[in-house]
Task: inverse folding
């Protein structure tokens, strides 16, 4: 028998289980309790009905929410690009080419430096309530550097993504077709043992539709699951390619046609919105309302990376989604928890119901609404992952 713990005196519990509580998608329970049974949720319900457990944690009326599921990040890198950010804020536009400066720094960094940087960022994520994170490669762009980036990421998460197709590296600038051959050949072979997903930056200045199709098909052929950086900087074929490939998610979605929106809905591809990017690049936000009103499932994630968005904060993304993208606080919270889980094809996280992973955050607030209502305030007072406190 693994030890059990009763978490009680929860003022507002978000379960994301519509069969519980108020019947909304958030499955909201007031004056609630839950039982951690080892790494899993053993019981959820009204405080008055709570069973006995080996230990008791009284949260004194606080809100408890599922741990955030950050389905899009780029944590394996060296150096930073603060000067590029300052230049951008002084008026220079963002383009995909800035990635190459991080590639140079990453290639030169020892494994221990890269791993320490991921550990530092994982700690930041935990302190802000994140319990599941997807981590991409994509700053190595050689066979050896992509493989070691993924091996380092795999030490921190099961959700690892091979993104050799992040940008064409400088040494292949005159011969992108040969780089695609490398990505779909030896680099894929070296990456596959450490990766669950394959991703491609399908954008002007990165990879076109045919290149993206070839890259995803090669990954699918060796058992990786597809996801796509799509329609970030302008209209383009990214969403089409994602839907054709059966991708779990199309990420960014800042420039969509009506056909793109219908395609996402009909193909049941999750639209992952990353409003920290638009905030940090001073760009127009995606039209979340258009997607939600059309019946597309929306996820929110950070895109934490040293160039276009160097935040690890899902609470910031929730605040931006509510204030700048007109999502309701309930829609934004769902998108950052259950939505992120859907974008990673996980049903054991992003919810707090019996049998799910005991991944949750205790807020220094009476309601999840405070995440958007009190932007910039560190409201996560404790984070639990698989029943253990991580922050
Ligand atoms: Zn990204």
Result:
């Amino acid at each position: 028998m693994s030890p059990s713990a009763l978490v009680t005196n929860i003022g507002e519990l978000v379960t994301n289980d519509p069969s519980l509580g108020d019947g909304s998608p958030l499955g909201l329970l007031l004056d609630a309790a839950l039982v951690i049974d080892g790494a899993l949720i053993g019981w959820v319900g009204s405080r008055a009905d709570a069973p006995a457990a080996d230990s008791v944690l009284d949260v004194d009326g606080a809100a408890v929410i599922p741990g955030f599921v950050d389905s899009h990040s780029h944590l394996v890198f060296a150096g930073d690009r603060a000067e590029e950010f300052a230049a951008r804020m002084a008026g220079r536009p963002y383009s995909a080419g800035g990635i190459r400066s991080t590639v140079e720094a990453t290639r030169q960094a020892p494994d221990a430096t890269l791993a320490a940087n991921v550990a530092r960022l994982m700690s930041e994520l935990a302190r802000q309530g994140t319990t599941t994170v997807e981590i991409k490669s994509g700053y190595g762009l050689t066979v050896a550097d992509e493989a070691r980036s993924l091996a380092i990421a795999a030490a921190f998460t099961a959700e690892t993504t091979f993104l050799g197709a992040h940008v064409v590296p400088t040494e292949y600038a005159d011969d992108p077709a040969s780089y695609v051959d490398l990505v779909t050949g030896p680099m894929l072979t070296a990456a596959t043992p450490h990766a669950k997903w394959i991703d491609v930056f399908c954008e002007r200045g990165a990879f076109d539709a045919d290149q993206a199709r070839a890259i995803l098909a090669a990954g699918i052929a060796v058992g990786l699951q597809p996801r796509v950086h799509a329609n970030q900087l302008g209209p383009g074929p990214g969403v089409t390619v994602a839907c054709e490939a059966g991708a779990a998610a199309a990420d960014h979605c800042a420039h969509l046609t009506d056909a793109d929106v219908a395609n996402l809905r009909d193909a049941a591809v999750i639209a992952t919105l990353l409003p920290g990017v638009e905030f940090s690049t001073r760009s127009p936000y995606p039209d979340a309302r258009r997607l939600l009103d059309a019946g597309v499932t929306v996820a929110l994630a950070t895109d934490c990376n040293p160039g276009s968005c160097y935040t690890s904060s899902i609470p910031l993304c929730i605040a931006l989604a509510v204030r700048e993208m007109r999502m309701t606080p309930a829609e934004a919270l769902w998108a950052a928890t259950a939505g992120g889980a859907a974008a990673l094809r996980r049903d054991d996280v992003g919810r707090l119901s019996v049998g799910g992973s005991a991944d949750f955050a205790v807020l220094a607030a009476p309601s999840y609404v405070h995440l958007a209502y009190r932007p910039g305030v560190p409201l996560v007072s404790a984070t639990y992952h698989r029943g253990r406190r991580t922050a």
